[in-house]
Amino acid sequence: MQVFTFFCVESDGSVPRFDVTPCADDAAARVRAFELLDMHHRCDFVEVWRGAQRVFDVFAQQVAAA
Q: What superkingdom heads the lineage (predicted)?
């Protein structure tokens, strides 16, 4: 398991919430990011970090398309 940090970014650039979750891999972390976007509708996107490395972003528009 790897520990990922998820930052929920709103349209004004603020980050009012974050989540730290252990995930098996990047694919599992991507699933968690989609879950967070589904829970927090004010977030425009989620930044996904593994330690000090920004791994990828998941955007709210991707949730609508999925």
A: Bacteria
CA 26, CA 42: separation in Å to the nearest integer?
Answer: 24
How far is residue 2's CA from residue 15's CA, in Å, rounded to a whole number? 22
In terms of residue numbers, what domain contains 7? Answer: 2-65
Residue 56: strand, helix, or coil: strand
SS3 category, 58: strand
Q: What is the pLDDT along the chain (66 residues), one digit of tens a residue?
A: 999 999 999 999 999 999 999 999 999 999 999 999 999 989 999 999 999 999 999 998 866 555
Cβ(30)–Cβ(49) under 8 Å?
A: no
The count of structural domains within the chain is: 1
Closest listed residue to residue 14, CA positions, set 40, 51, 35: 40
